[in-house]
């Protein structure tokens, strides 16, 4: 298991890939409110108030390098793109290359429960549905996770259950597969964003993958 190359408790500058909406936008807003300098790279060029927006395609090496330059940490929250196979994998590989080029070490990536070895954390009926309905998305997440684990960076993978827009509870449950037990069926995006912000500065999370639910 990788050990952190530095302490990440005092990181300041955070770049979010795919932070114009969804969980990424929630994370950008929370990080900004917590006093971090936040940059968002997205194709739309949009970002929450007070956050620096960079317009560009994260699979473009120049755009990825521009976005991560000077950052203390990078978070990838990008989703799939219609008609683009393995979008998450392509974006994550591009961002990793940019981080390696710019000397940025800390990486947190949003994957999905069901990816990797996390199927055991779901009830059997849900696991069967995921495999049948989301096979392509899970294959993309598996490619994404493989790139992260091979990156040599100080990485953490977060695998949420189903995402909702419900009011946040301010709490969450995060388990490694070695912890045993199963996770609930959903989590509000705001709670996932709070979990990811906490994870960024948690040195003990480096080199680990967590399933996360309410």
TrEMBL record:
Residue ranges, annotated region (Disordered): 161-183
InterPro entries: NAD(P)-bd_dom, NAD(P)-bd_dom_sf
Pfam families: NAD_binding_10
Domain NAD(P)-binding: 18-202
PANTHER family reported in the protein's UniProt record: FLAVIN REDUCTASE-RELATED (PTHR15020), NAD(P)-BINDING DOMAIN-CONTAINING PROTEIN (PTHR15020:SF45)
Protein name: NAD(P)H-binding protein
Organism: Arthrobacter yangruifuii
């Amino acid at each position: 298991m990788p050990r952190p190359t530095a302490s990440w408790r005092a990181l300041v500058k955070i770049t979010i890939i795919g932070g114009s909406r969804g969980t990424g936008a929630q994370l950008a807003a929370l990080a900004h409110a917590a006093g971090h300098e936040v940059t968002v790279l997205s194709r739309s060029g949009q970002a929450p108030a007070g956050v620096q927006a960079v317009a560009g395609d994260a699979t473009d090496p120049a755009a990825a390098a521009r976005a991560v330059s000077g950052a203390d940490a990078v978070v990838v929250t990008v989703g799939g793109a219609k008609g683009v196979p393995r979008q998450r994998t392509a974006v994550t590989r591009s961002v990793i290359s940019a981080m390696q080029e710019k000397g940025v070490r800390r990486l947190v990536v949003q994957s999905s429960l069901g990816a990797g070895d996390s199927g055991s954390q779901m009830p059997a009926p849900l696991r069967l549905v995921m495999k049948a309905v989301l096979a392509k998305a899970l294959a993309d997440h598996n490619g994404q996770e493989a790139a992260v684990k091979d990156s040599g960076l100080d990485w953490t993978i977060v695998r949420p259950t189903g995402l909702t827009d419900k009011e946040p509870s301010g709490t969450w449950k995060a388990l490694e597969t070695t912890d045993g037990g199963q996770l609930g069926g959903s989590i509000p995006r705001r709670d996932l964003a709070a979990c990811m912000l906490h994870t960024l500065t948690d040195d003990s999370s480096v080199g680990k993958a967590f399933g996360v639910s309410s």
